[in-house]
Amino acid sequence: MPPLGDQPAGHFADRLAALVAEHETQIVLGLDPDPNRLWPEAVERAHGVAEQHPGPAATAAVAVLYHCRAVIDAVAPAVVAVKPQIACFERLGAPGWGVLRAVVEHARRAGLLVLADAKRGDIDVTATAYAHGFFGGFPTPFGHVDGLRADALTVAPYMGADTITPFLSEARRIDAGLFVLVRTSNPGAADVEDEPLARGGALWERVAELAHGLGRPGPASGLHDVGAVVGATAPQHLARARDLLPRSVFLLPGIGAQGGRIADLAPAFAPGRAAGLVTASRSIVRAHEQHGGSPAGAARAEAERLREAAWSLA
Amino acid sequence: MPPLGDQPAGHFADRLAALVAEHETQIVLGLDPDPNRLWPEAVERAHGVAEQHPGPAATAAVAVLYHCRAVIDAVAPAVVAVKPQIACFERLGAPGWGVLRAVVEHARRAGLLVLADAKRGDIDVTATAYAHGFFGGFPTPFGHVDGLRADALTVAPYMGADTITPFLSEARRIDAGLFVLVRTSNPGAADVEDEPLARGGALWERVAELAHGLGRPGPASGLHDVGAVVGATAPQHLARARDLLPRSVFLLPGIGAQGGRIADLAPAFAPGRAAGLVTASRSIVRAHEQHGGSPAGAARAEAERLREAAWSLA
Questions:
Q1: Do A288 and A298 meet the contact criterion of CB atoms below 8 Å apart?
Q2: Is B33 an interface residue toward A (CB < 8 Å)?
């Protein structure tokens, strides 16, 4: 991994806001590679080198690497960050984690931020251990073990604030940030997140308050280094979330495949364009299945279409 | 990984109950290896083979493997399962995931169940991807990618029931189970889990009801394949949790280093001895720091002490 100096220094939200302004985009490319749905060229190339990477997991991991590199190359001009879905790498075991690191390096060379979507959450020392892996690593008797040096990580709030602060401490060592799950895009969000509280409001609103209290504003952007995951499929919650989290960057999944519409996202952008990041994965990567053309060309066109739609709103 | 036939078949809770009865123990060995706190012999041996495993992460991973094997060998007669803390392997990247697989194989050869402590949680396809990795794997164009074949996995409930059921579907394909986070052992559990609801009760009680609704009883034991993580540091909640989860196996962290006492755990064991699994990690692995003696001897003695204390309660 590159040393810290290779990443731009400064508060996470300031770095993000500068990139959003420079590239005129709020789109985040979700990388959820399924070995059964990769771009055909990546699969063919992986079959061609299968002898060098024996075993289904190693070959599938190489195919995932080729695929992710091609997607990033096609889409980079239209997006500000990639959001690797860690599950899709983790299920390939050790080769998957090796490829995740290579994908992160490729995205960084393309000038993109890396938002690791892992939804981790655990008590004190365990949270710190996860954070070591996703952020700056940790010292051992065998030398410093590098972390992934992600620019941000998604975290789960069920266990409370003391399970989030260890992630934040490690993130801040390398000017990274967090995105706390607040109101997600799945129907089951009604089961727990929407539960009405005795004090008034829904549980997710309480979690929003906790997330707000943990953030620190960047001196340039005024935006916090603790953002929130707020699903684009429930736009009625966006304005309320913005009231509770006036300085947080919202990571907005659910556009496209899950049914959310960009036009409904305006409240997310109120504090500035960098305050609303629209994530899209399948709708970009599988655009050729809908619209025809080459996978790369269709992905680029769809990412550009999303970019314009979001940029024109703010 | 061994084929499915090498694992005993049958409902997770029935397999667990049979092992608890056979080995007369409800103790689960937590494996939270910190490269800075390993047994000295493991560190020395890893230094000796560092040339074959170049780089800090690879050498640290080998040290972790030697350490975990030695701990398992020392403690196996007194425990029914191991609970690898996935964060501690994940932060070592690809070598860490390779070693995790080897530790799981070692524990299985020692006749122990494997409860993967990962606290994962995500929407539909992503939850399934995580479950592929921890349970039975998945088919790809490059062949079947093996999963870890864990006997059970801890999962996080914040995002709702539809983020738990995909894990359960994959678990049941290999007769595995889940443990849902219900009321955890950290002080911050008060922030979200204890939040009073408008319908009455605390949030964690609502989550307990959800977990109860997802489980299916084993024909032999009557215990569910969806268990609950209930911290041993808040014994006042144990009786209430048992009311809400009359057939669930409780995974009880917090004994020892976190201050919980075995004598307070009696309500957990009400449906039978296998319904309360007492996890201990640091108090076993670092017993020699407290009580002197060799690391292996002290660990074995402490595990045996815990075994007797829990067994005598039920």
A1: yes
A2: no
